[in-house]
Amino acid sequence: MGYGGYLTLLNGSPNDWTLSSQHSYQMDAWSWPTISAGTASRVYVEFGTKGSQKDDAGEAYYNIAGTSNKFQVKARKPSDFMLTITLDGLATKQSPQGSNIDLGFRHDAAVDWIMSTDEAGQWWSSAGLGVDWMQQSLGSIGNRTLKQICMPGSHDAGISNFKPGTVGANFANSQTQYLNFYDQLVAGSRYFDLRPVISAGKWVAGHYSELEGIGWLGGNGQSVEEIVKQVNDFTAKYKELVIINLSHTLDTDNDYKDLTQDQWNKLFNTLKGLNNRYTVTNPGKTDFSGKVLNEFIADRAAVFVLAQLPGGISLGNYANQGFFNQDNFPLYDSYSNSNDAGKMQADQLSKLKSERNLVADASKRKDKFHIFSWTLTQQAEDVLNPENAIMNLAVGVYDNLFVEAFNAFTPESFPNVLYIDAVGIRDKPVGFPYDKVKSVGTNGDIASLAVAVNNAKAGGNNYIIG
């Protein structure tokens, strides 16, 4: 057996990518299909077992049907295994014609090449997508409502490090994110699940669950003060929309009770340190997910703070200071609660199909802001197994977002949030000897996937684009 991995080719355009020719030397697997418009394919590539692998090579030449555009896929092993895209007959928003774009190579896993076209026919690629992808996309998505836009999202966004909270909790069963809040923003995330708790008298991001027969299990991550600073650092540089959803609030110093009104008020006062809060006087029950993106970030950054308030708690005058409740941003948010990749995938795709129907006929339309929870949930057997760490489970289903999920999305049924753990990485960060999180490379393809959904899926819906 040779050394194999995959290349995902995601065609977010209305034109088929057709193979004109291919050839290889000493490659054990090198066979390339047509990539139909609006679809993705995962292609297996295997470097050979005969001779010196440094001589292994392959080329596949693609034409983009109906155009003069073309590109190549190349395999080489100069010092390490490498797949490269050559834009010999094509330029994208990020890369001029003639560019060679090294994608790397992942043994038994995938690297991605994502290209899509916006309403103006301009090509976007996964190479060098700018941090401010929303601002760059305003020409296409600025007049779409938030219900009609796809973005990456961070589950348990504040748990990018681990500080003990209860007996039995450790970084493997508590830490959900590899990157801190700022770096998740840089990686493209725009929707953040923040779970503020009181711990040792301070506001921190918490990740706690009450387990039957065990009690409370969990720990803490970044302080809320640090998160506020990192969001401010980001919005000082980039005029992007940041949605922060507050939920699962607890007083861990007081038997894990719900927050009182006074404690909520103190939390809001802490979060008033967020600059660029989106504010509206007397918002009432206005649904702001029905507002267009330009209203938020046409000429500025905007931070939309949404609080999932329990019964008996109100915003009071904080409603006029950039804080909103669930009436102002209704969500469809239903996770699979499974550690089985197949069950999670089937569950989320089924819910998406049944709950999203973006059509002109209001009587048939289903357009609640949809959280697509591509997350695996540890079960009892996983809690004490570091190999099944939350972040390891996350990267184990990452590649399927780009093929199985993307291919299931349609112009009428696509998610608003690609909601994941371990934003910005795709390799397992938890491994033997399990004493700390390993260093792994970062990757921004999740943002390129969201752009491709906005271009290829939403952009094919006449109700959305008018």
TrEMBL record:
InterPro entries recorded for this chain?
PI-PLC_domain, PLC-like_Pdiesterase_TIM-brl
- Tell me which positions the record assigns to the signal sequence: none
Q: Which GO terms describe its molecular function?
A: phosphoric diester hydrolase activity
Q: Which GO terms describe its biological process?
A: lipid metabolic process
Q: What is this protein called?
A: PLC-like phosphodiesterase
The organism's lineage?
Eukaryota, Fungi, Dikarya, Ascomycota, Pezizomycotina
